Amino acid sequence: MELEVRRAICGSVLLGSRSQVGCETLESSELCNCNGHARKCRFNLELYKLSGRVSGGVCIECRHDTTGRHCHYCREGFYKDPAKQITHKKACKHTPAADTFQTTCSTSSLA
């Protein structure tokens, strides 16, 4: 699912969908490609500028154990099933061994 973000921008303030004097208007819809894992996104002016004015969307509240700007990574403790596209609801599978790993290293030597 792609969410459209149509906004006029004055600095870093989003003002709505109509142009105003002194504001830069996004000519085309900015798409927040959340890979079907989020229902909301926000516009980030800095990311928009860094992308060469191509994309500034950031997905909010990624679901289905995904994370990242576009919900395109599996969250910690999960891995991407190579048989599924990232757009699949069950693309990220739980790593059973992740629950048993130590988070620190032992400094004692083996004798």
TrEMBL record:
Give a Pfam family name: EGF_LMN_ATRN
Which Gene3D superfamilies does this one have? Tie2 ligand-binding domain superfamily
Tell me the superkingdom of the source: Eukaryota
* Keyword rRNA-binding (UniProt): no
GO BP, one annotated term: animal organ development
Q: Which keywords does the record carry?
A: Disulfide bond, Glycoprotein, Laminin EGF-like domain, Repeat, Signal
- In this chain the Laminin EGF-like domain maps to 59-92
tRNA-binding as a keyword of this entry, yes or no, is no
Which cellular component terms (GO) are annotated to the entry? basement membrane
Database matches in InterPro entries = Laminin/Netrin_ECM (IPR050440), LE_dom (IPR002049), LMN_ATRN_NET-like_EGF (IPR056863)
Task: From the Swiss-Prot or TrEMBL record, give the protein name.
Answer: Laminin EGF-like domain-containing protein
Protein's organism: Culex pipiens pipiens
Upper taxonomic lineage: Eukaryota, Metazoa, Ecdysozoa, Arthropoda, Hexapoda
